[in-house]
Amino acid sequence: MQKEIPYKIFLTEEELPKTWHNVRASMKELPEPFINPVTRKPCGAEDLKPVFCDELIAQELNTTDKYIPIPQGIQDFYKMFRPSPLVRAYNLEKKLDTPAKIYYKFEGQNTSGSHKLNSAAAQVYYAKQQGLTSLTTETGAGQWGTALAMACAFYGLDLKVYMVKVSAEQKPHRKAVIETYGGKVIPSPSNTTEAGRKILEENPGTGGSLGCAISEAMETAVKTPNCRYVLGSVLNHVLLHQTIIGQETKAALEKYGIEPDMIIGCAGGGSNLGGLISPFMSDRLEGKNNIHFIAVEPASCPTLTRGRYALDYGDTGRMTPLMRMYTLGCGFMPSANHAGGLRYHGMSPIISKLYHDGYIEARSVEQTKVFEAAILFARTEGTLPAPESSHAIRIAIDEALKCKETGEAKTIVFGLSGTGYFDMTAYQSYLDGTMTDYIPTDEELEKSFASLIDPEAR
Ligand SMILES: Cc1ncc(COP(=O)(O)O)c(C=O)c1O
């Protein structure tokens, strides 16, 4: 007999995972290695050393160890905000009058307001171990910059955050939070770097993009002694750190004998989605389940649904190695009317490969539909969701409504990657009826595909 499922399933502190889960160890075909843009040969650790921390490079290149130990110093940080709850959305189910059973893994219960702290803690810990004294990074919506500032304060490192200019303007309080934790915020593109000056010259008045901010942060890291650059998404090691989410979710579901039919996550650079699905995906790849995985992205930045699977740079300034990923082209400039994150031109090479091989479905949604779902969720479940996470909510609701029509009692799990307290300008514009949708035309996308090193690649 199935036990009664509580509203929230909590794990105990002792049940916190002691390892991260490396899904690449279960993949029959691996994502292509990073390519050095000059030699066009796969990057080794030496190529990555000037930019990234040593231990993170080892994790980045590790395709064989399925379980990677979480050092005690990181476990101790995790204890401040983990385990996070797996919530049964009873109230939402009732409102939708659906036979579907909806669960969400809630990552917003920390001051950064999102899952980003899972990787920030790990990355700053390793930087400290290596004896570095400062870090640089980019931030879009601001959650990553906040998470990193929290981790830098905890482990004692200096931090410069290049924040996408439109976000910095839309969310002045983000800057205050980051500064409270000791980080320095620079709206990007800025005049403080060569990359920033060049981007400003070519696109005066641009609101910036994650790609620009990455170029500026990397340049500063390379030019500053004892400093490295850290990235909040896309890379293999970031996705690896986020697997704490999926492992906790799996353990919580198993406690009650619950088997998900589908798992849904929003996808910007792919880290929360990848972290949520990794342990379930390994099982799927090993023939142990048949879960339907869905990645949800904005219609205004349709990387998976309309992008090309091609070798591309991770940043606008073309400083990163080349990665084979779904991409809109590193020259893609997201529409300024798009609220929140999920506006990165590329996608995690791991998620890209799994999607390319047919293990993940991708859907894109327009932002007014996303905010409609966010408000329904807030009014029924109580939590104010981040716009990014609300992409997953939208599809979870759509799927639950399909169940209502078919009478199927599917088990739907989605990632609630964060809260939306800093996104009230966007909420207000939805409520005022002034929010609009933007879907790039094929011609516009063609223009940004022209920034690919091989524009004909498919
Ligand atoms: C709350 C939240 N969810 C999701 C994302 C998207 O990033 P990723 O796809 O790496 O999880 C972001 C990024 O800014 C975020 O802040």
TrEMBL record:
Gene3D superfamilies per UniProt: 3.40.50.1100
Cofactors named for this entry: pyridoxal 5'-phosphate
A molecular function GO annotation: tryptophan synthase activity
Record field: catalytic activity: (1S,2R)-1-C-(indol-3-yl)glycerol 3-phosphate + L-serine = D-glyceraldehyde 3-phosphate + L-tryptophan + H2O
Keyword Iron: no
E.C. number(s) listed in UniProt: 4.2.1.20
Pfam family, one: PALP
Keyword Amino-acid biosynthesis: yes
Major enzyme class: lyase
UniProt cross-references to InterPro entries, sorted A to Z: Trp_synth_b-like (IPR006316), Trp_synth_beta/beta-like (IPR023026), TrpB-like_PALP (IPR001926), TrpB-like_PALP_sf (IPR036052)
Highest taxon listed in the record's lineage: Bacteria
Ranges of residues in domain Tryptophan synthase beta chain-like PALP: 82-418
GO cellular component term, pick one: cytoplasm
Keywords in alphabetical order: Amino-acid biosynthesis, Aromatic amino acid biosynthesis, Lyase, Pyridoxal phosphate, Tryptophan biosynthesis
Pathway(s): Amino-acid biosynthesis; L-tryptophan biosynthesis; L-tryptophan from chorismate: step 5/5
PANTHER family: TRYPTOPHAN SYNTHASE, TRYPTOPHAN SYNTHASE-RELATED
Purpose: The beta subunit is responsible for the synthesis of L-tryptophan from indole and L-serine.
Quaternary organization: Tetramer of two alpha and two beta chains.
Similarity field: Belongs to the TrpB family.
UniProt protein name: tryptophan synthase
